[in-house]
Amino acid sequence: MTYTALFGLSLSTSASAADVTKLVEPCFACHGKEGVSTEANIPSIASYSEDYISSTMKKFQKKIRPCIETEIRSGSKKGTKTDMCKIAAGLSESDIGQIGEYFVAQTFVRTPQVFDAELANKGKSIHKRKCDTCHTESGTVSSDHAGILGGQKMAYLRAQIKSFKDGTRPMSAKMKPKLESLDDNEIEAVINYYGSVQ
Asked: Whole-angstrom Cα distance, residue 136 to residue 143?
Protein backbone atom coordinates (compact mmCIF):
# COMPACT_ATOMS: atom_id res chain seq x y z
CA MET A 1 0.00 0.00 0.00
CA THR A 2 1.38 3.42 -0.91
CA TYR A 3 1.75 6.54 1.24
CA THR A 4 -1.06 8.14 -0.76
CA ALA A 5 -3.39 5.21 -0.15
CA LEU A 6 -2.47 4.96 3.53
CA PHE A 7 -3.19 8.59 4.30
CA GLY A 8 -5.59 9.60 1.51
CA LEU A 9 -3.31 12.29 0.11
CA SER A 10 -2.69 13.44 -3.41
CA LEU A 11 0.96 14.46 -3.29
CA SER A 12 2.52 17.04 -5.51
CA THR A 13 6.18 17.60 -6.28
CA SER A 14 5.82 21.38 -5.92
CA ALA A 15 7.19 22.68 -2.65
CA SER A 16 4.44 25.08 -1.52
CA ALA A 17 3.86 25.41 2.22
CA ALA A 18 0.47 23.72 1.86
CA ASP A 19 2.04 20.74 0.05
CA VAL A 20 4.75 20.36 2.69
CA THR A 21 2.15 20.50 5.46
CA LYS A 22 0.15 17.73 3.79
CA LEU A 23 3.33 15.72 3.35
CA VAL A 24 4.48 15.89 6.98
CA GLU A 25 1.13 15.76 8.79
CA PRO A 26 0.94 11.94 8.57
CA CYS A 27 4.34 11.77 10.31
CA PHE A 28 2.80 13.53 13.31
CA ALA A 29 0.36 10.63 13.78
CA CYS A 30 3.20 8.56 15.31
CA HIS A 31 6.20 10.88 15.75
CA GLY A 32 4.17 13.66 17.40
CA LYS A 33 3.44 17.23 16.38
CA GLU A 34 6.43 18.72 14.56
CA GLY A 35 8.29 15.44 15.15
CA VAL A 36 8.34 15.60 18.97
CA SER A 37 7.22 12.14 20.05
CA THR A 38 5.28 11.45 23.25
CA GLU A 39 5.54 7.68 22.75
CA ALA A 40 8.28 5.75 24.61
CA ASN A 41 9.11 3.48 21.67
CA ILE A 42 8.84 6.03 18.85
CA PRO A 43 11.70 8.48 18.33
CA SER A 44 11.44 12.22 18.20
CA ILE A 45 12.65 13.20 14.74
CA ALA A 46 12.53 17.00 15.05
CA SER A 47 15.89 18.50 14.03
CA TYR A 48 17.10 15.26 12.38
CA SER A 49 19.28 16.23 9.42
CA GLU A 50 17.99 16.14 5.86
CA ASP A 51 20.72 13.63 4.98
CA TYR A 52 19.78 11.31 7.83
CA ILE A 53 16.04 11.42 7.04
CA SER A 54 16.73 10.89 3.34
CA SER A 55 19.03 7.91 3.89
CA THR A 56 16.63 6.42 6.45
CA MET A 57 13.59 6.70 4.17
CA LYS A 58 15.52 5.13 1.30
CA LYS A 59 16.52 2.24 3.57
CA PHE A 60 12.86 1.71 4.43
CA GLN A 61 11.97 1.83 0.72
CA LYS A 62 14.54 -0.91 0.05
CA LYS A 63 13.51 -2.78 3.24
CA ILE A 64 17.08 -2.60 4.51
CA ARG A 65 15.76 -1.44 7.88
CA PRO A 66 13.23 -3.68 9.65
CA CYS A 67 9.59 -3.02 8.71
CA ILE A 68 8.07 -3.26 12.19
CA GLU A 69 4.30 -2.96 12.23
CA THR A 70 2.97 -0.32 14.62
CA GLU A 71 -0.34 1.23 15.50
CA ILE A 72 -1.01 4.75 14.23
CA ARG A 73 -1.36 6.82 17.40
CA SER A 74 -3.48 9.81 16.31
CA GLY A 75 -5.37 11.39 13.43
CA SER A 76 -7.98 9.94 11.09
CA LYS A 77 -6.15 6.59 10.83
CA LYS A 78 -5.74 6.19 14.61
CA GLY A 79 -5.87 2.55 15.71
CA THR A 80 -5.00 1.12 12.30
CA LYS A 81 -1.62 -0.48 11.67
CA THR A 82 1.19 0.26 9.28
CA ASP A 83 4.98 0.20 9.11
CA MET A 84 7.67 2.57 7.88
CA CYS A 85 8.38 0.53 4.74
CA LYS A 86 4.76 0.94 3.59
CA ILE A 87 4.85 4.64 4.41
CA ALA A 88 8.15 5.23 2.60
CA ALA A 89 7.17 3.18 -0.45
CA GLY A 90 5.00 5.87 -2.03
CA LEU A 91 7.39 8.78 -1.50
CA SER A 92 9.32 10.34 -4.36
CA GLU A 93 12.82 11.73 -3.93
CA SER A 94 11.29 15.21 -3.95
CA ASP A 95 8.80 14.22 -1.23
CA ILE A 96 11.62 12.85 0.94
CA GLY A 97 13.64 16.03 0.40
CA GLN A 98 10.71 18.20 1.51
CA ILE A 99 10.13 16.05 4.59
CA GLY A 100 13.83 16.36 5.48
CA GLU A 101 13.78 20.13 5.01
CA TYR A 102 10.76 20.40 7.28
CA PHE A 103 12.06 18.30 10.17
CA VAL A 104 15.60 19.73 10.23
CA ALA A 105 13.99 23.13 10.87
CA GLN A 106 12.07 21.87 13.94
CA THR A 107 13.39 21.88 17.50
CA PHE A 108 14.39 18.60 19.13
CA VAL A 109 12.87 18.33 22.61
CA ARG A 110 14.84 16.09 24.96
CA THR A 111 12.73 13.58 26.86
CA PRO A 112 12.79 13.84 30.67
CA GLN A 113 13.04 10.21 31.79
CA VAL A 114 14.12 8.04 34.69
CA PHE A 115 17.73 6.88 34.45
CA ASP A 116 20.33 5.31 36.72
CA ALA A 117 22.84 8.05 37.60
CA GLU A 118 25.67 5.61 38.33
CA LEU A 119 25.15 3.81 35.03
CA ALA A 120 24.83 7.13 33.20
CA ASN A 121 28.20 8.25 34.58
CA LYS A 122 29.78 5.01 33.37
CA GLY A 123 28.01 5.44 30.02
CA LYS A 124 29.44 8.94 29.60
CA SER A 125 32.97 7.52 29.71
CA ILE A 126 32.06 4.74 27.25
CA HIS A 127 30.44 7.26 24.91
CA LYS A 128 33.61 9.37 24.87
CA ARG A 129 35.78 6.35 24.05
CA LYS A 130 33.53 4.52 21.59
CA CYS A 131 30.82 6.78 20.19
CA ASP A 132 31.88 10.43 20.23
CA THR A 133 33.63 10.33 16.86
CA CYS A 134 30.30 10.01 15.03
CA HIS A 135 27.82 11.09 17.75
CA THR A 136 29.44 14.31 18.92
CA GLU A 137 28.47 16.46 21.90
CA SER A 138 26.71 13.61 23.70
CA GLY A 139 24.91 12.59 20.51
CA THR A 140 23.04 15.90 20.23
CA VAL A 141 24.36 17.32 16.95
CA SER A 142 22.00 17.03 14.00
CA SER A 143 24.73 17.74 11.45
CA ASP A 144 26.50 14.49 12.42
CA HIS A 145 23.83 12.89 10.16
CA ALA A 146 23.53 10.05 12.68
CA GLY A 147 20.20 10.78 14.32
CA ILE A 148 20.00 12.38 17.75
CA LEU A 149 20.79 10.14 20.72
CA GLY A 150 21.17 12.56 23.65
CA GLY A 151 17.73 13.02 25.20
CA GLN A 152 16.14 10.45 22.87
CA LYS A 153 13.67 7.85 24.16
CA MET A 154 15.60 5.16 26.06
CA ALA A 155 13.08 2.44 25.13
CA TYR A 156 13.56 3.32 21.47
CA LEU A 157 17.36 3.27 21.81
CA ARG A 158 17.21 -0.17 23.47
CA ALA A 159 15.08 -1.53 20.62
CA GLN A 160 17.43 -0.14 17.96
CA ILE A 161 20.55 -1.54 19.65
CA LYS A 162 18.82 -4.91 19.90
CA SER A 163 18.12 -4.82 16.15
CA PHE A 164 21.77 -3.88 15.47
CA LYS A 165 22.98 -6.73 17.68
CA ASP A 166 20.67 -9.37 16.18
CA GLY A 167 21.48 -8.28 12.63
CA THR A 168 18.01 -7.12 11.59
CA ARG A 169 19.27 -3.53 11.23
CA PRO A 170 22.59 -3.13 9.42
CA MET A 171 25.41 -1.22 11.11
CA SER A 172 28.06 0.92 9.48
CA ALA A 173 31.51 -0.64 9.21
CA LYS A 174 32.79 1.95 11.70
CA MET A 175 30.08 1.25 14.29
CA LYS A 176 30.05 -2.55 14.16
CA PRO A 177 33.31 -3.35 15.99
CA LYS A 178 32.66 -0.67 18.60
CA LEU A 179 29.18 -1.91 19.46
CA GLU A 180 30.27 -5.54 19.39
CA SER A 181 33.03 -4.76 21.89
CA LEU A 182 30.46 -3.68 24.51
CA ASP A 183 28.75 -6.10 26.87
CA ASP A 184 25.09 -5.76 27.87
CA ASN A 185 25.88 -3.74 31.01
CA GLU A 186 28.04 -1.30 29.06
CA ILE A 187 25.31 -0.87 26.44
CA GLU A 188 22.75 -0.19 29.17
CA ALA A 189 25.16 2.34 30.68
CA VAL A 190 25.42 4.21 27.38
CA ILE A 191 21.61 4.18 27.00
CA ASN A 192 21.26 5.61 30.51
CA TYR A 193 23.81 8.28 29.64
CA TYR A 194 21.83 9.34 26.57
CA GLY A 195 18.66 9.29 28.67
CA SER A 196 20.32 11.62 31.18
CA VAL A 197 21.15 14.30 28.60
CA GLN A 198 18.95 17.36 29.08
From this structure: 9
